[in-house]
Amino acid sequence: MAGKPAVAEIHGAIDCLRRLTDAFGRRRQQLAQSVGLTEHQWSVLEEISTEHFMPSMFAKSRESTAAAVSKVIRQLVDKGLVSVSLSKSDGRQRNYVLTPRGKKTMAALRANREVAIDRVWSGLAAEEVQRFVEFGNQLTTRLDEYAHRSAKQ
To answer: What radius of gyration, in Å, describes the C-alpha atoms of the chain?
Structure first.
């Protein structure tokens, strides 16, 4: 069994994770911008495309406010990507659907993302990707457990 990592190695790993997170964020921003969206608009558009979109649930899951999500929906409507109608079964609820332009935008985003995934990940060995996933899952579990314990204190 390998020994415990040195403090310098741990700090190096944390820095690596920060750089990876930053690079991933920059790439998501580039993908969104490639079709004239912000990352937040992209995430709302993607959720609407699932046909199970509820603004309040989306806001809660993203630790956002209903007002912020409503603003993004209005922006997407203004761009002609989403249409909103009253529910036929309950006039208090709204239905959100992608317009043909919204579907085309999502298709372009997904195609651009697939190209990026292929170019970045396909050159890696399957074993490397598997080890990365295992380590990432282990680290996520440890971070979540630590955050949960810290929140109780």
So the answer is: 20
> Which position has the token pair 């899951």?
61
DSSP tag of 2: -
Render pLDDT for 32-88 as a digit per residue (tens, 0 to 9).
999 999 999 999 999 999 877 888 888 888 888 889 999 999 999 999 999 998 877
Give the distance, in angstroms, between the CA of residue 144 and the centroid of all CA atoms in the same chain.
Answer: 18
Contact in structure between 73 and 58 (CB atoms under 8 Å): no
- Which numeric CATH code is attached to 7-122? 1.10.10.10
Domains of the chain by residue range:
7-122
Which residues are 86's β-sheet partners?
A: 94
Average pLDDT over residues 119-134: 95
Determine contact, residues 53/45, Cβ cutoff 8 Å: no
Q: Say what the pTM is.
A: 0.80
